[in-house]
């Protein structure tokens, strides 16, 4: 098996955390949990979409993937503590970090020499 770069490791950790949070949200009864479940499904889909991008093999991928990993962990801790009122804000931060990663992964304007 090929070794993963730090960016790929961060992405895999973020995905695993998001999937664990999704499972916890699926069984929660709070309305905020149900709303967060739908938003988190979009995040997981976006993260899976960049999984094979060349960008993740570069050092440039480390900061945005680390941000996704950090925000996913923050969301997981809120869901674990059932602090439902704070979940929408944490999900928003994760969505923003994911969008930043997706944008950077497109590597628009980047020339590889």
* Number of DSSP E strands: 0
What gap, in angstroms, lies between the N and C termini? Answer: 28 Å
* Cα-atom radius of gyration: 15 Å
Determine the mean pLDDT.
92
Q: Any idea what the shape is? A: elongated
SSE order in H/E notation? HHHH
Number of domains: 1
Q: What kind of sheet is the major sheet?
A: none
Structure notes:
The chain is built from 4 helices and no strands. It has helices at residues 6-26, 31-49, 62-80, 87-105. Helix 1 runs parallel beside helix 3 (62-80), helix 2 (31-49) packs parallel to helix 4 and helix 3 runs antiparallel to helix 4. The chain has one domain (6-104). The protein is 69% helix and 0% strand. With 113 residues, the chain is mostly helical.
Helices, strands, pairings?
Blueprint: H1 6-26, H2 31-49, H3 62-80, H4 87-105
Helix pairs in contact: 1-2, 1-3, 2-4, 3-4
């Amino acid at each position: 098996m090929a070794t993963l770069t730090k960016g790929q490791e961060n992405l895999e950790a973020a995905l695993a955390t998001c999937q664990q949070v999704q499972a916890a949200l699926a069984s929660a009864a709070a309305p905020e949990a149900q709303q967060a479940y739908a938003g988190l499904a979009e995040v997981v889909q976006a993260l899976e979409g960049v999984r094979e991008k060349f960008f993740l093999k570069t050092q440039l991928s480390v900061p945005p993937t680390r941000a996704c990993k950090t925000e996913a962990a923050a969301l997981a801790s809120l869901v674990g503590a059932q602090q439902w009122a704070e979940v929408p804000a944490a999900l928003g931060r994760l969505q923003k970090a994911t969008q930043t990663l997706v944008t950077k992964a497109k590597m628009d304007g980047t020339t590889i020499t």
